Each structure stands twice: as structure tokens, then as C-alpha cells.
Amino acid sequence: MGEQGGDPLKERLQVLGEALRQQVRQLLQESGDQVLDQIRVRQVLGGMRGVRALVCVTSSLDPETGVRYRGIPVAEVSARLPRPSAEDEAYVEGLFWLLLTGSIPTEEEVNWLRRTLSERSHVPYQVYEVLDRLPAETHPMAAFSMGILAMRRESVMREALQKGVSKDKLWEYAYEDALNLLAKIPYIAAHIYRRFYRDGKYIDPDPSLDWGANFAHMLGNDDPAFYNLMRLYLILHADHGGGNVSVHAARLVGSAWSDPYLAYSAGMNGLAGPLHGLANQQVVQFILEMQKALGSMLPTREQIAEYVRDMLKKGRVIPGFGHAVLRKTDPRFLAQKAFAEKHCPDDEFVQVVWRLYEIVPPILQATGKVKNPWPNVDLHSGALLRHYGIVEYTFYTVFFGVARALGILAQLVWDRLLGLPIERPVAVPLQDLFTLLAEEAQPSEESRQVV
Ligand code: CMX
């Protein structure tokens, strides 16, 4: 398959894309004026929470049960995808195939994808030069975003647009960019890690390894359990519907036909915010500060409760808890907890995380305002990475960024396949809202006459 230079994934997408595009056209013709939602003032002023105004092909998010990748609950997806052995986590390449096509790939298809990613993985040296020239205090997420932008000259979509490509063909160039980016992203991330935290001692890739394991290898840990943690981590963080900040930022930018390099980098700038992906770094920072303040590596439940209440009194948020959509414990947290129970139940840092899981939700609930007091994906990830020797927590959001490439790039390809237009909602002038509400409270002479 694909040995003579064919691309089975692209061929599949072509067929799927044509069929879905046709269905979308028909839907627009037959039901284009149907009302899907009504928007309240609370939503206009509240981050558009709950507004159903976007579509997503790759995944969906349910407040109670969490994210589903193409309909499969996130906790089950690894077990359904091809894997090295029954004891191992699934190959991450398989998830990318699933997100793009909606089908579980065969072993052969996963092997093809691994080979094609390996063939596309060369990063031009100028990109590494840009990274090497950054001041040592640059945050790794800023470096990551700059590394992606420094590679932008490689974009085939940018080149095709310059040459005047037809709109129908645009998705093919977005697809090529997506595969090229996916192949190179772990190299950029590993380079940043080794440059900032390991004295620039870089590790050559191992082309015999799969995408997730090779990333672990380039970071510097060849423990098979760490390979599995990486595969699991990358799968769990890959996608989360279309409305989260990183995916939405990338898709918004992509809707202007900005190529995937520009769009993915925009998504990463959103992921770098403390209310989103930076929370994984902040969880570890918060635990370390707490351990120091309380003089104990494993503080008692009472000590933790008092410390957390004190943080809330000071108006601070407790990182790793809460979510804009989820209303239950994030299944991605539970999947990481299950991994830790199997591989490192005696790790003290892991035990602090488990204590927080026990203690924090009722405290947040008692505030009466936090809509979801339960842990999100970011509460557990740092403790696992620390266990395998990646203690430099300022790098943690880059892991999230590498994983989120899978979802963002798959969604960008589908956006162009469907020919979705440039996004352009209306921002209501704030004064208009005041006027509207004042009129509603006190009907004008004119409207009274109408009644
Ligand atoms: N600690 C303290 N207060 C919290 C809180 C938390 N973990 N989560 C929510 N709140 C507060 C909000 O700040 C808000 O307070 P005000 O009314 O005073 O402004 C109130 O509770 C209501 O917020 P909400 O509707 O429950 O939550 P939002 O949808 O507005 O925000 C989120 C969601 C994730 C930003 C928020 O829960 C939060 O700040 N959590 C901590 C940061 C974090 O872990 N982020 C990672 C999320 C997952 C990810 O994207 O990676």
C-alpha cells in the first residue's frame, strides 16, 4: 500500500470529503434557515458559553461523559487502535488516522503513516538556529510557537495560494502541510527541551520507533513505560471538540486561508494561557509551593484543605480543577490516574495529586459559584512526567501542544475539505446592549401603541 508513492489516507479523504461536502450542501439548501439556538445576553458577555455556533468533524464533548473521538469515548480509544502489544498503549499515528477518516486503521495503514511521517521529518537547520538564538529565559511555549512560524516557508499551501490555486484543491495542500507539520513538531519540541534544559545535548531520532515513542526517545528517556506514557498522553490530549481556545483559535485563523503553520501556531499561543494548557505547569508549581509552605512532601488532608481555602480567600484559582463544558471528573484525568495506579502508586507527588482530588472538589463546591469542581486533564499530567524524570515543569505545556497538533491539524484539513467560509461573527456594541435592555424594561411610546 502506498509503496509506489500513492497516498491511501489522502485517497480516502478525497472520497469522504466529496460525500460530506455534498451532504452539507444539501443540508444548507433544505434546512439553512432552521433555528439551532437562541443567544442570551449572559452568553454574549460570558465567553459564548453554550452557544452552538461551530461544527466539528473529528470529536465531540459531552459535559457528563467527556470527549469522544469520532464517537469513541476517549478512555476506550487506545484499546481500539493498533498497538505494539496487548500490554502497550496504542500507536498515536492510529489516532490521527481515526480523527481524519472516522475509521479504525489497520496495522498496515498505521505502518504506512509512520513511514510517511518519518520521511517528512527533516527540519531545516535555519529553524534550529532561530531556536538556538533565543534568550535562555524564553518560555518554551513562546519558543515552540516561534519554531513553528520559522518553518512556515516550508508551507506548500502558502506556495499554492501564491500561484493561484483553485479553492476546491486547497484542502490537498492543507493536508500536505498537516502531515509535514505533524512529522516535524516532535523534533522542534525535543530540540527546545534539550536546548533549554539539557545543555544543548541533542539526541538523534530513531526511525524504527513510532511517532510517540520516538518523541520520548528524543527527549532522553528510553524506558518502555515512558514510551507508553507518551503514547497515552498524546492520545488523551489530542482533541477536545471545536470550541476550546487552542482549536478554535487555530480554526479561526485557518478560516482566513492562513496556512496550517500560521493557524497551528496561533492555536499554540492560546494553549499557552493559564486558564487553558498552561494549567499543567501551574498545577506542579502550586504543589511545589504548597509542599514548601507546609514543610512536607505529602501534607495531611487537613493541611491541604486549609492551604486551598487560603488560596481561594486570596482570589486565586486552583489549577487543574474546573472546566467550561465538563461537569464531571474528566475521563482524561481518570485514564492518567489508572496509568499511575499501575506504574507508580508509591510516588509521593502522585499521592499529593490523589489527595487534591479527594479534598478540593467539596471546597470548590462550597464556594457556590464554581460550576465544575472536579479535576480536569491538567491535574495529573505533571505528576506522571515528573515520575519519568521530566521535572522541568515550564516545558509541560509543550507536551500538550505536541498532542493538540493531532486534533488541530485534522480539523484544519476538514475545514478546507468542507470549504467552510471565513469566520465573521458580529460583535454587539456594548452600548447597544444597555439601550436594548433599557427599552425592554420600559417600553417606548411607539411600542406601547403597537401593543
Ligand atoms: N479555582 C477557583 N475558582 C474557580 C475555579 C478554580 N479551579 N474554576 C472556576 N472558578 C471560578 C471562576 O473563576 C468564576 O469566578 P468569578 O465568578 O468570580 O469570575 C466562577 O468560578 C465560575 O466559573 P465557571 O463558570 O465554573 O468556570 P469557567 O467556565 O468560567 O472557566 C476554567 C473554566 C477552566 C477557566 C476555570 O474552571 C479555571 O480557571 N480553572 C483553573 C484553571 C485550569 O485548570 N484550566 C485548565 C482547563 C482545562 C484545559 O483547557 O486545559
Which ligands accompany this protein? carboxymethyldethia coenzyme *A
CATH superfamily of the largest domain: Citrate Synthase, domain 1
SS content category: mainly alpha
What spatial order of strands do you see in the largest sheet?
A: 1-2-3
Radius of gyration, taken over Cα atoms and rounded to an integer in Å: 23 Å
- What CATH calls the topology of the largest domain is Citrate Synthase, domain 1
CATH hierarchy, class of the largest domain: Mainly Alpha
Helical residue percent? Answer: 55-70%
Indicate the low-confidence ranges by residue numbers: none
- SSE string, helix = H, strand = E? HHEEEHHHHHHHHHHHHHHHHHHH
Whole-number count of domains: 2
**Inertia-based shape:** globular
Largest sheet: 3 strands, antiparallel
Total beta-strand segments? 3
Mean pLDDT: 96
